[in-house]
Write a structure and sequence with these properties.
Helix content is 27%, strand content 25%. The protein is α/β, with parallel strands linked by helices.
């Protein structure tokens, strides 16, 4: 776990989809407050970072925090991503350029002293992402598999916000034998109360009592960008989900701010082992 003096995490971050084609997407423009942006749900990322910074300041009042010194406006997220991606794109070889989709996966990092850095990778050609669904009720064949973690996770600031403390997610992914961000497999984390908190890199959605629900804030999971959008647009509501209620073969929707929304099939570990 990377921390700064006084126990505060060394950085906050948000992971996003940077895609120039999004400038033409009216749904994305609406989310971004009327600004045509190449960043998927740009304004929500800015809000997320501000909320994380405020939570960190409140939890450690004796530490000097300058998280948002250089990121006062949402548009600055697009600017720092563009400044990083454009030189990278121009340096891509013809083979890489031929397999890239035009979109990039970017992680924007904010250090406690206000410094900003970006890590990025080009997205390969895949099925067109579902970024702004109108419903979670219809879907094609799920291409992802989702499994349950092997042990409990204690809710904390680090499970509610993206920080440099990623130990619990790294452990869960290792236990689930997920070796790469490109692996089409996800693992669900659950609390000491046996309630689903979150996925390791996604927000999960479960069909319960006639509608789709996602774990509530009180469960301790990430306050994700796509989670916020889906709640605001009525795709789901908040609802507690016991880990014991998730059945083998059940369809679970997942979402994150790079891939958008996509269905997965839940498999219990016994089923996974028999298939393997």
């Amino acid at each position: 776990m990377a921390t700064s003096p006084g126990g505060a995490p060394s950085h906050l971050f948000t992971t996003l989809r940077y895609d120039p084609g999004l400038r033409e997407d009216a749904n994305n423009t609406a989310v971004c407050g009327g600004a045509a942006s190449p960043v998927y749900m740009m304004a929500y990322h800015h809000d997320r970072l501000r909320e994380a910074a405020a939570a960190m300041v409140a939890s450690r009042p004796g530490i000097e925090h300058r998280w948002l010194l250089n990121l006062e406006q949402p548009e600055q997220i697009a600017h720092v991503c563009a400044a990083h991606v454009q030189p990278e794109a121009s340096n891509m070889g013809s083979e890489d350029r031929g397999t890239a989709s035009g979109a990039w996966r970017c992680a924007v990092y904010l250090s406690i002293d206000g410094a900003i850095s970006v890590k990025s990778a080009p997205a390969k050609q895949t099925v067109q992402p579902l970024l702004f669904p109108t419903s979670l009720d219809s879907f094609g064949k799920p291409l992802w598999t989702v499994v349950m973690d092997s042990q409990t996770t204690e809710p904390s600031l680090a499970t509610s916000f993206k920080t440099s403390d990623r130990d619990m997610y790294n452990r869960a992914r290792e236990a689930a034998d997920i070796s790469s961000p490109l692996h089409t497999k996800e693992v669900l984390l659950y609390s000491t109360s046996d309630l689903i908190m979150d996925g390791s890199i996604t927000t999960p959605y479960f069909f319960r009592e006639g509608g789709w629900v996602t774990p509530p804030t009180s469960s301790g999971g990430q306050l994700g960008v796509t989670r916020r959008w889906s709640l605001q647009h009525g795709l789901c509501s908040e609802g507690t989900v016991s880990r014991h209620s998730v059945e083998d073969g059940e369809t679970v929707w997942l979402s994150n701010a790079f891939r958008g929304f996509f269905p997965a099939t839940f498999r219990d570990m016994q089923s996974v082992q028999s298939l393997g």
